[in-house]
Every structure is written in C-alpha cells, then in structure tokens.
Design goal:
By secondary structure, the chain is mainly beta. Helix content is about 0%, strand content about 55%. The strands form 4 sheets. A 4-stranded antiparallel β-sheet has the order 1-3-6-5, with no helix packed on it. A 4-stranded mixed β-sheet has the order 2-8-7-4, with no helix packed on it. A hairpin with a 5-residue loop joins strand 7 and strand 8. It is rod-shaped and about 100 Å long.
Length: about 210
C-alpha cells in the first residue's frame, strides 16, 4: 500500500466584482445594471445604505451578492456613495465601494395662500397672519410695498409659511401687496396677498 499525501491550500479570502459596474449613473424611476460580487472565506458582511429601491441579496450557497433594483421616483439628484465590507474570522476587512449618481425627476414648485389672503386694516395695526402652503420649495423670498416691519416663519414639517408684522402708522390709504416667491429646483412660483389700509377717522374735539 502506497500512501498519498494531500497538501491542502488555505482558501483564498476574497470579495470581488464579477459582473456589472460599481459606479453607475441612473435616472430616478429607472433600473440600475445588476452588480454581482463573489466572496470567500468571509464570515460577516456589512454594507452602507443604498438609494431607495436598490436591493442587496446575499446567497450563502453560491457565495454571491447581487445588487439590483429600480431607483425610487422620490430619490433626489445627488451622488450616493456606498461600501460593502467583508470581515474574516481573524477580523481582517475587505472593502468594495462605489457610487450611484442619480438624476432626480423634475419637481414642480407650487405656493398658494390658505389664510388671510385679502384683508382690511387701519394704519398702525398688525396684519392678520398670512399663511402660505407650498410644495418642493428650496427657499422663500418675501417682497412687499406695504410700509412696516414684517417677518416670515417656515414650518417645514407642514410645508407652510406665515407672514406677520405691523403696518406703519403713517401709511397712506390704499391697496398694498405682500408677495412670497417660492424658489425651486426647476421653477419659481409666486403668491400675492392684498391689504387695504385706511386711517382712523379724525376726531374733532369741541370745547
């Protein structure tokens, strides 16, 4: 009987791309080209987040990872970097990284007045708070020809702007406007409130 000796080589530690590109440009609402990675001698895999709609599937039998899916319509324009980490029993780490460059869908900006868009008041009084409701606004801009001091608050959670303030007592009788421009990524939109100003009638004191 002749003995046969086998020299078993240690398994190679690997985390590598076998199909697809780690860096891709894609429009919101469209699918990425699937990315397939192979791994070996790795006990734990971690990853950072992907844009909404992109999935990460690990097959423990074939030692494959598949990244695929359709970028959600809600994903905004931007570069979304990601990392995939493979960790060995010895706590060594292998890293694969890439970037999804997403072109978001055009977002139409809107704004409208929902409270106190038309009002009458006496010079020297405060205006009734004017409430604007908006969508897809990047920043607001307030303009008015009504003499006085005015401020604007932005409730971002409810998408509402509120303009308030005090009209100068010396303001002449007439019609004035308070306009807010909602600036967006693809368009700007305006909404205008009207304020009618009068004076208190003069009181003549008779001795």
């Amino acid at each position: 009987f002749t003995g046969i000796t086998f020299n078993l080589l240690p398994r190679e530690t690997a985390l590598k791309v076998v199909s697809g590109s780690l860096n891709q440009s894609v429009k919101a609402g469209e699918a990425i080209s699937p990315i397939i990675l192979e791994y070996d001698n790795i006990t734990k895999i971690e990853r950072t987040a992907f844009p909404n709609g992109i999935s990460f599937e690990r097959n423990s039998e074939t030692h494959e990872i598949t990244i695929k899916g359709t970028v959600d319509n809600s994903v905004e324009t931007g570069d979304y970097g990601y990392k995939i980490l493979g960790i060995t029993e010895q706590d060594d780490t292998l890293e694969v990284s890439g970037t999804f460059s997403v072109q978001g869908l055009p977002r139409t900006t809107t704004i409208e007045i929902v409270e106190n868009g038309t009002q009458k008041l006496v010079a020297g009084d405060s205006i009734k708070p004017i409430v604007f409701e908006y969508t897809n606004m990047v920043e607001p801009n307030l303009e008015t020809n009504l003499p006085g001091g005015y401020s604007m608050s932005n409730d971002k959670s409810n998408h509402k702007l509120t303009v308030f303030g005090l009209v100068n007592e010396s303001t002449k009788d007439g019609s004035y406007t308070i306009q807010v421009t909602a600036k967006g990524t693809s368009n700007d939109e305006r909404a205008t409130a009207t304020v009618e100003v009068t004076h208190k009638p003069a009181v003549t004191k008779i001795e």
